[in-house]
Specification:
With 363 residues, the protein is an alpha+beta fold. Helices cover 23% and strands 23% of the residues. It folds into 5 domains: 1-32; 34-101, Trypsin Inhibitor V, Chain A, CATH 3.30.10; 105-171, 2-Layer Sandwich (Trypsin Inhibitor V, Chain A), CATH 3.30.10.20; 179-265, Trypsin Inhibitor V, Chain A; 296-363, no CATH class. The protein has a 4-stranded mixed β-sheet with strand order 7-11-8-9, with helices on one face. A 3-stranded mixed β-sheet has the order 2-5-3, covered by helices on one side. A 3-stranded mixed β-sheet has the order 13-16-14, with helices on one face.
Length: 363
């Protein structure tokens, strides 16, 4: 009796287990939607709410992530996984990436002095976009010279939205020569406009207290506009001019730093070469001329005299002056070169034309 009841229980349990297994395997098709597949719809470019409604209607589950793209609308579907047209089972999870409604901010990196290629990689890593590029003559060929946003230069560290377009100024090397401009005496505002129009860069040194940088005056530059011989100096486009600026430099300081030979003349506008005596032109002595033949000034008289040089010809032709004769008789021997000074007044007395001593003295 005991054996029969045990056998019966075993058979009963086995039948129940087989029935449950049969029901489980037969329900797998229903549980996993076996054989029921559909194509994933195209969702990219649609608004998030529109895409969610469409997926829920088709029986898909949804997982949403977000990022930012400047050229896309807020909440626009930027990416989907699986791609549109892929056959998947109903109820599978569809991953969507949408565009943020409010763009996040990021600090502007420093791109100046970077190569153009490195600047592009940096912009991409900072979720920024490349805008317009312009080229300017500069010694740093291929390097970033300036970074601009919305028409203004932007400094590193400034907060800007993700996806902002960054415009770059790139150096293209030095080009043709041009005359060096004279910036001495100009205000810094005017000098900047002139340098920009000539495609030149500046290295500025500020000196002394400043109240207004735009009205400050340039008092020194290198290279100068003129050389020591007053010839124009040349400079390549894109080259650098070193300048020094003060708020209110003195006129003497500006005059001392004028280009060319002006600074070599001293502070005076002209050089005093002396006034010729009796309107007689000043003649320079010859290099090899002996000291005895150089023109000298007779003490006590306002005329130039050539000393009496004794030569063989002079000894034969020249008469010795009378001891009682006055000094005017000696001076009268040269009618062309010397003029007497009477004792009574300062008016010169012309020499006598018939003085034979003159021709004898200078034969």
């Amino acid at each position: 009796m005991f054996k029969q009841s045990f056998l019966f229980n075993v058979i009963f349990i086995t039948l129940i287990t087989l029935g449950l297994l049969y029901l489980f395997f037969n329900s797998l098709n229903w549980l996993t939607n076996h054989g029921k597949q559909t194509a994933v719809p195209a969702l990219m470019g649609k608004n998030m709410s529109e895409a969610v409604k469409e997926l829920e209607k088709m029986g898909f589950r949804i997982d949403i992530d977000s990022t930012y793209k400047a050229n896309s609308d807020p909440l626009e579907v930027l990416f989907q996984e699986p791609e549109a047209g892929t056959s998947v089972k109903i109820g599978r999870t569809i991953f969507l990436t949408i565009n943020k409604k409010i763009p996040p901010s990021i600090e502007m990196p420093n791109l100046v002095n970077m190569s153009f290629r490195n600047a592009l990689l940096t912009l991409h890593s900072y979720y920024l976009e490349m805008g317009d590029t312009s080229y300017r003559p500069d010694v740093a060929a291929g390097a970033v010279l300036e970074q601009w946003v919305n028409g203004k230069q932007i400094t590193p560290g400034t907060l800007i939205p993700f996806g902002t377009k960054i415009n770059l100024v790139i150096g293209e090397g030095l080009s043709g020569k041009q005359p060096v401009p004279n910036l001495i005496g100009m205000t810094w505002a005017d000098a900047k406009l002139l340098l920009d129009s000539l495609s030149l860069t500046s290295n500025v040194i500020w000196e002394g207290p400043l109240t207004d940088s735009n009205s400050a005056i340039i008092y020194m530059q290198q290279p100068e506009a003129l050389d020591e011989l007053d010839f124009r100096n040349s400079i390549l486009q894109g080259d650098i001019i070193d300048i020094r600026i003060m708020q209110s430099p003195s006129e003497e300081l500006i005059r001392q730093n004028q280009p060319g030979s002006k600074k070599l003349m001293g502070n005076d506008d002209s050089t005093d070469l002396g006034t010729p005596i009796l309107n007689e032109p000043v003649t320079q002595p010859k290099k090899n001329e002996p000291d005895s033949l150089k023109r000298k000034k007779i003490p006590g008289m306002d005329v130039h005299m050539v000393p009496n040089v004794e030569t063989k010809q002079a000894k034969n032709t020249m008469k010795a002056p009378d001891k009682k004769s006055n000094s005017s008789d000696v001076i009268n021997r040269d009618k062309d070169k010397f003029k007497p000074k009477p004792k009574t007044d300062n008016k010169p007395v012309p020499a006598k034309k018939n003085d034979t001593n003159i021709s004898n003295d200078y034969n």
